[in-house]
Amino acid sequence: MDILTPMETTALLLSLRVAGVAIALGLPVAVLAAWVLGRYSFPGKTLVDGLVHLPLVLPPVVTGYILLVTMGTKGVVGGWLYQTFGIKLIFTAEGASLAVAVTSFPLMVRAIRLSVEAIDGGLEAAARTLGAGPVDRFFTILLPLMAPGLLSGAIVAFAAAMGEFGAVITFVSNIPGKTQTLPLAIYAATQEPGGDAVAARLAAISFSVALLALMLSELLANRVRRLIGQV
Amino acid sequence: MLDVQIRQRLGAFALDIAFAAEERGVTALFGRSGSGKTSVINAIAGLTRPDAGHIRVGDAVFFDSTRRIDVPVEKRRIGYVFQDSRLFPHMSVRSNLEYGLRRVPAADRRIAFDPVVDLLGLGHLLDRRPRGLSGGEKQRVAFGRALLAQPRLLLMDEPMASLDSARKAEIMPYIERLRDEMRIPIVMVSHALDEVVRLATTMVLIAEGRVRAAGPVGTVMGRLDLSAATGAHEAGAVLDLTVERHIPADGLSVLAFDGGHLTVPQIDRPPGSPVRLHIHARDVIVALEPPTGVSLRNALAARVVEVAEAGPSSADLRLAVGGSFLIARITRAAVRELSLAPGREVVALVKGIAFEPDSSGSASDPRRRVVDV
């Protein structure tokens, strides 16, 4: 990679990894949440809905701070993880993944839920009369039909995860090579005298990745829609 | 034997239905929109749960509130053809057809893929997606998909309601073939009398969530007290006859039933084959003596069993002809002058008939199909 400096490559790869892990772990949960919120009504649904969407309206710094308090080595959950499994999230890339997973989660849920709600419930009833049980129906009817929303939700959330700043820096700090993702590297560069050129190059990389992701999302979603017979 | 007895509260509406039907042939649940017909088949399918009652098909008990039996939909193996097809948009026609089939153990598969594709004429559609199909084609795929799930019973919810009359005429023969060639009982919901008369063997008349009448189509259609529920303008009787012989020289065919013979314009069916006729009340004339010197050829010995007012000046007579019934709409003045009362022996003169199924292709207007005889 001659185009990028070693520092840029490190930051880019770290960002991709952090966002990738976050989406991979968050997606199944998001599908479940979107499914439950889009299809069923139950007591406390408004509260669950609110909690899911909270990271979207909360300042990311606050999200990061809450994670710091609960998931730090002295926090309730983080302390237990550290004592029992020796897992340390604070100041690590895994911690960064958790932070961006939380902030990008509502974006995924919203996109997937819209496509769940668009699926005709009559199709599931038809599948039932043809002998398909709940799990069977989920994989043969619902999952394929929610695929466009799932895909575009995942990709938009991925792009947003790559760009998350506040929650990451608050929770896992800004350690080059460990937790310094692209936006954090840009911030660090602007803090140094003469770092403008470095910041500009990093910003250009961010810009390209984000644009690429959005275009890919559109393309893939269109192809999937054709694949499942919607157009 | 199909045995259904259910009670169910649906908002302000109370469903209280009981009927039984033969395990072969088509049972039509007939009634106006909102009478509760679809709720009945949804309960049979298991898509909704009755408050009380039982649902049995042969030896299989699908629901029994006293024995606390409630088999889940996916375990009932009851086929359901929905009004709006509900084909899976992300699958080809072939995958749609195979969806139910794949979920039945190989040992239980009696109905095979290829014969169903042939029966319903789906061969050229197998690789297409539902999106590109016409309404009639979609319904045919839906029939096939339900059939291939090896159902013990096939439910149809107004399978032709979303089709225009040309598409309807196209799909009716397929339902007849399902009825005649597959040994699966069919329960069909309909509010179109022509469909019921053409396809059904048993008719269950439903009004306001209750069964008003149930029995063979000819018997239910012959009842005067139901003409308002079945649609007064279509009042008439249904006769099942067999072709006795043809008279090619005159272009006529002679049809026989236990009430006598009817001569009709020659029909294209071999002697011995069954024919169903729909005889409208307005096409039946009543005489006290066998008439002479008139052009009418079809006179049947009949007995008046019931007289009912049908309008300010008209009355309907229910006439027993052998084991079947005819309805005659005449003026009230004629009833009085001829002293027509239950028990009176008369002659029923038939001046027009409609074939079921008709070959003229005008399924939408029952009056247009009437042939003078």
TrEMBL record, chain A:
The free-text function statement in the UniProt record for this protein reads:
Part of the binding-protein-dependent transport system for molybdenum; probably responsible for the translocation of the substrate across the membrane.
Q: Its membrane topology, per UniProt? A: Multi-pass membrane protein
Q: Where would you find this protein in the cell?
A: Cell inner membrane; Cell membrane
Lineage, top ranks: Bacteria, Pseudomonadati, Pseudomonadota, Alphaproteobacteria, Rhodospirillales
Name the keywords, alphabetized: Cell inner membrane, Cell membrane, Membrane, Molybdenum, Transmembrane, Transmembrane helix, Transport
Main localization of the protein described in the UniProt heading: membrane
Entries under CDD domains matching the protein = TM_PBP2
Question: Per its UniProt record, what Pfam families does this chain match?
Answer: BPD_transp_1
What protein family is recorded? Belongs to the binding-protein-dependent transport system permease family. CysTW subfamily.
List the source organism. Azospirillum endophyticum
Name listed for the protein in its UniProt record: Molybdenum transport system permease
Domain named ABC transmembrane type-1 is located at 12-220
Q: Which InterPro entries match?
A: MetI-like, MetI-like_sf, ModB_ABC
Report the transmembrane regions from the record.
Answer: 12-38, 50-69, 89-109, 138-161, 202-221
Domain of life from the UniProt record: Bacteria
From TrEMBL, chain B:
User: Which gene carries the instructions for this protein?
Assistant: modC
Return the PANTHER family for the record. ABC TRANSPORTER I FAMILY MEMBER 10
Q: Which organism is it from?
A: Azospirillum endophyticum
GO: which molecular function terms?
Answer: ATP binding
Taxonomic lineage: Bacteria, Pseudomonadati, Pseudomonadota, Alphaproteobacteria, Rhodospirillales
Name of the featured protein: Molybdenum ABC transporter ATP-binding protein
All residue ranges annotated as the ABC transporter domain in the record: 1-233
Q: Which UniProt keywords apply?
A: ATP-binding, Cell inner membrane, Cell membrane, Membrane, Molybdenum, Nucleotide-binding, Translocase, Transport
**Record-annotated Mop domain positions:** 293-359
Matching entries from NCBIfam families are given as: modC_ABC
